[in-house]
Design brief:
There is one protein chain. By secondary structure, the protein is of the alpha+beta class. It contains 16 helices and 23 strands. The protein has helices at 48-66, 108-115, 124-127, 136-146, 150-155, 164-173, 180-183, 198-203, 239-246, 305-315, 323-329, 368-394, 411-421, 433-445, 452-457, 471-488, and strands at residues 4-10, 14-20, 26-33, 45-46, 73-80, 85-89, 99-100, 159-163, 177-179, 189-190, 195-196, 213-215, 220-223, 232-238, 255-259, 263-270, 281-286, 294-301, 338-340, 358-360, 401-404, 425-428, 461-465. Strands 17-18-16-15-21-22-23 form a seven-stranded mixed sheet. The radius of gyration is 21 Å and the shape is globular.
Length: 492
């Protein structure tokens, strides 16, 4: 068997390809950004064709960087930004509309209309999800209504739908499939049966023939072509589930938090879905072929690293994302300033699409240092929001939080997170856990890795931050955050 596996990690702002060895080490990594398109307030789009080209390009780049050929890969897995919705022509394979990104809020009126019968939890018992603009089913329903001729062609069987994973797999091997984790983010899949629900599909007016086949996360889907000719395409996980997998959170009670464009805290709840009473979503964590699915509770936060990008791109307070830590570190505290990044409403645990971003607590004393610090701290406050809801739902208290994602290199943020939660924050040696999870899934599907135990043994601790703040001070700061959140509600 070849000595490496590969993984495509198609994220919100960029696409990466990694080559991983049997010890779980990344031996080559290539990354390319793609455009963020904002045609109207609240609308966020990507060009699916551009994403396809970036994915193929980083495969070539990473292989060349390692001096390898496709034949050196035992399999290639996929991790992807979830809920981002693509429709394409079955015959030509070309996109028929811009990809509607998970952050997009254009479906607010449609979600409200669907909630008129049964309320915002109309589909929650079935799918584990509230009716929200976040999920891809309403995005697809919107496209069918608004793109001229799309519904007619879809009903004739000429149009295919998928999240980004389905789009990439179609282009890599011609199979129209998705996995259970991505399907569980659509508002269309029965969590128990792991199949499309005819009632939910009909309620949103979606032709069933558009939908991909739902498969396990760890399975072989087809044989690659193009730059991956002859390589099994095997292993498919939504990016946050891929990070859970890459962190080896295989047992109930294990949790991880990913700090990327958004922030996503997942808790493994085992082989039974746990209904949330505190604003979280119930989702599929992963499924190995031939085995029962494993479920998770998830708290999804829309804006984490994207807040730093906003400081850079919209306000010009920093010239690179890396500068935010230095600027924020020049202030000993937030100076009473709070930043609530409700640019697309508030996700978990609030689920308030009417919220909009605020900066609260400003005085003449406040300056750019305090704003930079408030932006970083907002990610930690949102994580505490989610963790408190998770502990209430699952009845467990974490003794440590495993972290990953692009922001975990920020020592100021990680220390503040440990302080605010009162538990250690632990980063693995390889922080690129999303791409690692997809590589592990691909390797398990073809026998490159022998099982979950071997994968778990590959995890290594890289750094640990211990709480240094008194619980009284942490609670005082968090109380200010809760007051700031109240100011965001009801704006839209």
């Amino acid at each position: 068997m070849p000595g490496f596996v590969g993984a495509i990690d198609q994220g919100t702002t960029s696409t990466r390809f990694a080559v991983v060895d049997r010890e779980g080490r990344i031996v080559s990594l290539a990354q390319q950004e793609h455009r963020q398109i904002y045609p109207r307030a609240g609308w966020v789009e990507h060009d699916a064709a551009e994403i396809r080209e970036r994915a193929l390009a980083v495969v070539d780049e990473a292989l060349a960087g390692a001096g390898l050929a496709a034949s050196d890969l035992a399999a290639v897995g996929i991790a992807n930004q979830r809920e981002t919705t693509v429709v394409w022509d079955r015959a030509t394979g070309e996109p028929l509309a811009p990809a509607v990104v998970w952050q997009d809020t254009r479906t607010a009126d449609l979600c409200a209309s669907l909630a008129a019968e049964g309320g915002p939890d109309r589909f929650r018992a079935l799918t584990g999800l509230p009716l929200a603009t976040y999920f891809s089913g309403p995005k697809l329903a919107w496209l069918l209504e608004e793109v001229p001729g799309l519904r007619r062609r879809a009903e004739a069987g000429e149009v295919l739908f998928g999240n980004i994973d389905s789009w990439l797999i179609w282009n890599l091997c011609g199979c129209h499939v998705t996995d259970v984790t991505n399907a569980s983010r659509t508002l269309l899949m029965d969590l128990e049966r792991l199949a499309w629900d005819p009632g939910a599909v009909a309620a949103m007016g979606i032709p069933m023939q558009m939908l991909p086949e739902v498969r396990p996360s760890v399975a072989v889907y087809g044989e690659g072509r193009g730059p991956l000719a002859g390589v099994p395409i095997a292993g498919d996980l939504g990016d946050q589930q891929a990070a859970l997998f890459g962190q080896a959170c295989f047992g109930p009670g294990r949790a991880k938090n990913t700090y990327g464009t958004g922030c996503f805290l997942l808790l493994n709840t085992g082989e039974r879905p746990v209904a949330s009473r505190h604003g979280l979503v119930t989702t599929v964590a992963y499924q190995l072929e031939g085995r029962p699915p494993v479920y998770a509770l998830e708290g999804s936060v829309a804006i984490a690293g994207a807040g730093v990008q906003w400081l850079r791109d919209n306000l010009g307070l920093i010239s690179s994302a890396a500068e935010v830590e230095e600027l924020a570190g020049q202030a000993p505290d937030n100076g009473g300033v709070y930043f609530v990044p409700a640019f697309s409403g508030l996700f978990a645990p609030y689920w308030r699409p009417d919220a909009r971003g605020v900066i609260a607590g400003l005085t003449r004393f406040a300056d750019r240092r305090h704003l930079a610090r408030a932006v970083l701290e907002s990610t930690a406050y949102q994580t505490r929001d989610v963790l408190e809801a998770m502990e209430a739902d699952a009845g467990v208290s974490l003794d440590a939080l495993a972290v990953d994602g692009g922001m975990v290199g920020n020592d100021l943020l990680m220390q503040f997170q440990a302080d605010l939660l009162g538990v250690p924050v632990v980063r693995p040696t390889v922080a690129e856990t999303t791409v690692l999870g997809a590589a592990y899934a691909a390797g398990l599907a073809v026998g490159f890795y022998s099982g979950l135990d071997q994968v778990a043994d590959l995890w290594r601790e890289g750094r640990r931050w211990l709480p240094a703040m008194t619980p009284t001070e942490a609670d005082r700061l968090y109380g200010g955050w809760k007051k700031a959140v109240e100011r965001t509600l009801g704006w839209a």
